[in-house]
Amino acid sequence: xxxARSRRTAWRCIPKRMRRVLVLSAVVLAGCxxxxxxxxxxxxxxxxxxxxxxxFEVAADTGLTSNTVSFTxxxxxxxxxxxxxxxNEWWKHGRKSPDPDSSLDPDGAYKEQMSWEASWxxxxxxxxxxWAAVDTDGKCSGPEPYPLGEAxxxxxxxxxxxxxxxxxxxxxxxxxxxxxAFCASEGKRLPxxxxxxxxxxxxxxxxxxxxxNAEPPGGCDGAVLKFNGGFCGFPRPIGSSNLxxxxxxxxxxxxxxxxxxxxxxxxxxKNEPNWAAPSDGxxxxxxxxxxxxxxxxxxxxxxxxxxxEPYGAGDxxxxxxxxxxRSVR
Length: 329
Description:
Blueprint: H1 2-5, H2 16-30, E1 44-47, E2 53-60, E3 63-70, E4 75-78, H3 84-92, E5 140-141, H4 156-160, H5 176-185, H6 193-200, E6 258-264, E7 271-273, E8 287-291, E9 309-312, E10 316-317, E11 320-321, E12 325-327
Parallel strand pairs: 3-7, 5-10, 6-11
Antiparallel strand pairs: 1-4, 2-3, 4-12, 6-8, 8-9
């Protein structure tokens, strides 16, 4: 049924084994190896955005901004939010910052706008991310108090404590800088506000949710939000809801955890192609946008319905995570 509703591509509707056969056949016929876009890696879904546009709202100090951004390119996006297991492998083994002033989108539309600043390096140090003290020294913030047993302050601590299945929980308590550095380690970057919004609405505007405008039926089985004062038993594994997905299979864009995107807070309405705010001058005190809802947001809140909001880039929140994208070359 989801394949029948897909408006952008039928590729992911073909069984994976058959896709491999088709790719190998193409290699033989063409006499060369295909680019990665033919078969994104196991984490990613291709988004056919070229020639399309998206409308979305951003909450700013000057008020609400309504924005329209068009795209001249396609991109790949993580199917799931980055997990505890995936992040921890990077953090504990070979973690490093990108080179200063290097582009995080070297061959893409944001080559000039997206670059790593040397002042962000400290955020990727062990001193900044203290595994032993994050629950006690205020380094990870979030709504309190939680009902006992419903919402721990971080998800990665559960993996450290040996909780079964915790490696598949969405990673939380990550600053914007740490999220950007992790994505760079995989040759990816954070999504722009426009990219994230386009995927979330399945490329259909105006639309509040990937499935349409109706609030998710079935409570926590539909999306990991806050229903009737409850937190849907968070933390839950990525992709565990039966409704919170796009037609192409991108999961948890409505609930689960908030997600960092690239852009700084927008101070005015935009109507431009391939827009992303430049990073010049942004430091740990700057604010970056987060998209979506989480287990602490009611289904009727505007942020649950797609509005993006600014938060401290150097702060870490126990209700926020991220996913990565990659420009199609």
